[in-house]
Amino acid sequence: EYHRQTPLSPEASFLGNHAPPLVAETMPIMTATNTAPSQQLGQMAQAKRGGPKQSFSSGGSTQGSSLKRNKLINRNISVASESGNVNMLLQVVDANLADMNGINLATAFHRVAKAAPRSERELTAFRRHPTFARLFDGVLEHVQNHSLRHSLPSEAVAQTAVPGEMPVQCLSIVAWSCASLQLRHRPLFAALAEVAAPRLLDLKPYELSNLLWAFAKVGLNHCELFKNIADRLLSRQEGEFKVQCLSTIAWSFATLKRRNLVLFNSLAKEVCHHVASMKPQEMSNTLWAFAKNNYAHVDLFRTLGDTIASDASSMAFKAQEISNTAWAFATVGLQHRVLFAKIEAVSLRQQQAPQNVANLLWAFAKLKVRPGDKLIDILVDSAMRKLTQYKPAELSAVVWAMAQLAPHNAPFLAVVARACVERASEFSCNGVANLAGALSSVPLQEPQLYVAVLQSSFPRLQHLLPRALVTLLNGATCAALNPVYALHQASLQAATAQIADHVVARLAEFQPGELLELAKALKPSSSGGAEAVDELRRALSRFVDEAALPQGAVEKRPPSVGSMSTADESQEDDDSEDAIWPTRDRMDSMLSSSPGLDDASPALADTAACRAPDGRLAPALAAALETKAAA
Question: The whole model's pTM is what?
């Protein structure tokens, strides 16, 4: 009854209207007849078995008859499901619901999830069907009252102690079905976790990975379950989990922002040994997961990059997969020019969705790898035709990337900038700051548009993260140096003063590296002599002197446009761009607060993730590790 599944592509929007992966092909709808559904099922089952349907023995025990009855229910559910007639399937479920045991409930729920419609509107109506509602209530009641929910594996309660109860393996089926049906039911998932967490050894590798995928898909993070899964994975044998499962596991941990460097290091090592058996989606998802966790495992990225670049099957990569691959390399800051040449060649042949266009442009610009004019023209043409479909973060990324790759394409930049201004209210708080940073160096044909963007951020200043405030202030000072904005100097200086006045009150929230970037942004030649700006300069000078920070410790970066990951678009932290090599204070904070990192500290210095592409250990990380080890 169970089919191995892979996760949806990571860029699919949260609980989006996508069909579960590897869904069985739709069977033709049966033609209407006067035969009752039960008679149709009997005829179909008889034809499938090649003989008449056997009758029950009248002399069997009650338990034996019940078991036969449950087997027949499962068979009828399977036959109805294979017919492709969802109404017949619901009729069979409704007729047998009262007699279903745990396995029957799991089977019915799984088959219904596979047969359910995929469009959001149809799925919403389907979930209101009376039979489906009763089936879900039955599953919920069964799991919540499971005899193993509050017991430990060491206790003398065997899984077969309660006749007809769901075995632990069925919990993975129930979780997968809920995720496929977009059912984010907290009490049910909590009960599933309580039963499964102490009994992960009872699950096969693909059952465990599917359970993990389901929790990640609905966005529910059960700490005990994920901790136990991490422990289970770290004790696995080489080759026990197929590479498909390892990719799903990495995707799930990254989607829920579960950072465990020891686990990811073990996943990377095993994936590198089996890269030849990976499919395009598995490569793309794995790279996305490591980039999402800010884990630049050089060996993994190099191995997968070489494979994609040299393998003729790379042409089989879908547009979404190839753009995610580019995004992953750019996010961790690892260049692979041969791979990006292959990405360019593949992208020329594909129809690009808005997110793919934004990812590709942003990745090429971030790594300073300029694609050919032909690809830029194709992506620009695609963007112009679908501009209204772009999300705010995608618009911001396109503006910033085009300012780096083709700054003289004034007509396109003007159209996109105008669209951004018209939709400024749709941008998140930090997104407005990113937009201001992206537009600061663009040669806009209508300079007043930039002033409007800057002013739209003023009511949201108190909600901006320090990283976003740095981007906003840097954008305002950069715009003051842009000759295009020469006629708007007074407005830009007033905006800079207002932002500076707000930053002064929040200086204690800034990291040392961010303070240095603020100091660099406030050059006398670029920020005027407003009183608020001078006060910020003096305050920054005191902070820098007290912290004894070297003035050249942090190199000024271009305006941040965010990670462009749409797996967690509702999260504000995705709007800010992390440094590839964190500052010492930030790394100390990560090592002391992130779950699972304390145990990893002694081993981190031996991993490829701790080293820059040239093989040197990152200085900030090395110092943080030494301090942590001494403590």
Answer: 0.75
